[in-house]
Structure formats: structure tokens, C-alpha cells
Amino acid sequence: MAKPSEPTPCPVCGGELILRRIGDLKVIEYQARCQACSWAGALRVLRCGGCHGDHLFEWTGEAWRCLDCGHLRGSSPPRPQNPEGG
Ligand SMILES: [Zn+2]
Ligand SMILES: [Zn+2]
Q1: Which numbered ligand comes closest to the C-alpha of 2?
Q2: Cα 72 to averaged position of ligand 2 atoms, centre (Å)
């Protein structure tokens, strides 16, 4: 199982992502931004049916994609991005 403190690689360039926790107690979701290529997107922790276990999924615009194995999962879309202070 992945440790929460483990750096998460950028899906585009493999650089280190800065994660900001959003969501609530039931949904673990992050706003992620890459320090290297300035990619930004939503990541959510979901149970993966491909590699099994709880993994980070990237929002593709239509579905969530596992960063580890590429497995696609349908689920509710990410929360709208809040301005500072939310
Ligand atoms: Zn990147
Ligand atoms: Zn997976």
C-alpha cells in the first residue's frame, strides 16, 4: 500500500506533484500541480479493479484513470476548484 507521504509522480513528465487535499471524509481528493511542467488536475483515491487496492486516479474529463496501471473507473466528477481560503 502506498504511503500518503510518498511523492506522487506527474502523469505527464514524471516530476513531483504538489498535492492539496480537498474533498471530505468520505472522498479523498487532491488538487495536484506539477512543479516541473505545471500540469494541473484533480486526483482522487479510489479502489482500483486493475491493480487492486486504493490508488490515485487522474481525472481524464470522462472517467478516472489509475496512475499505476491505467485502469479506468467511472465515478462522480471532481469537485469544482475552489479559490483560496475554501
Ligand atoms: Zn509534469
Ligand atoms: Zn490500478
Answers
A1: 2
A2: 8
